[in-house]
Amino acid sequence: MRTKPLSIVLRHGALVIVCFIMLVPFYWVIKTSITNENIYAYPPRLLPEAPHLFNYVDVWYFIPFARYLLNSVIVSAIAVAGNVVFNAMAAYALTKHFVGKQSVMLLFLSCMLVPFQATIIPAYLITAKLGLLNTYLGLALPLMSTIVCIFIYKAAFEAVPQSLIDAARVDGLKERQVILRILMPLSKPAVATNVILAFIWSWNAFLWPLIITREPIMQTLPLGLARFLSYLEDTTGALYAFAVMVLAPSIFVFLMAQKEFIRGLTSGATKG
């Protein structure tokens, strides 16, 4: 039975309305960042008047924004690399049959219920013992592997035919080569999902960098925001400008791999 044209129009119309509602806050943030308008003014102006980039200039020069940006990029790159590699190794192990597998799965699921704030003290002590306080590796250490991403990898690896893996072993590939040359190239949606989630979580991290950084030069963008707000009295426009500059990389990374990201999240929801 073919879908009627009217139902298609109504469906797309509803999607357009929902998208418009979701994009209004983003538009309002950008508009306020280039106009410094009073967000409580009534009636609100829909179009910006006398736009300028002074707030963006203030953000760049009032604090060492370039340094904070570099720190965030380095920390996020380390966290993304760790998630892509370590999660793939852990997921591959969970696809095998071994004694105590169910207990390990139950342990992983139980750990997902524990918030990071409850484990931040032992994480800090371990990082201090390793001598990684106030370092890039220390900033990224707790974010280099996440259980959610491990299960995303696991679902993708289990969808790969076992005969293909057996053929790779016959050809002489070792276990790590099976992961790198067979499983990961066939699991691009899972890889993209790991990259996006790891990047966003590490990019927006605030509490952990606040605890282990000792020098302002090692601070990341979320900490730089707190420092920036202490310099200005009228912070609405400047705050929104800072938010736009911080959100732009995350949105860019998501848009680059959004199709693979959606496929990675829904890979286990359908059969065939």
Task: Report what the structure shows.
It is a single chain. This protein is mainly α. The protein folds into 2 domains: 52 residues, no CATH class; 203 residues, MetI-like (MetI-like fold).
- The CATH homologous superfamily of the largest domain: MetI-like
Order of helices and strands: HHHHHHHHHHHHHH
What fraction strand? Answer: under 5%
Tally of alpha and pi helices: 14
Task: Give the tally of β-strands.
Answer: 0
By CATH, the topology of the largest domain is MetI-like fold
> Unreliable runs, pLDDT <50, ≥5 residues?
268-272
Through-space gap between termini? 22 Å
Shape: globular
- What percent of the residues sit in helical stretches (DSSP H or I)? 55-70%
Class from secondary-structure proportions: mainly alpha
CATH class of the largest domain: Mainly Alpha
Write down the domain tally.
2
CATH architecture of the largest domain: Orthogonal Bundle
Mean pLDDT reading: 84
Layout of secondary structure:
Elements: H1 5-33, H2 54-62, H3 65-94, H4 101-111, H5 120-129, H6 136-140, H7 147-158, H8 162-170, H9 175-183, H10 188-203, H11 207-212, H12 221-229, H13 236-256, H14 258-265
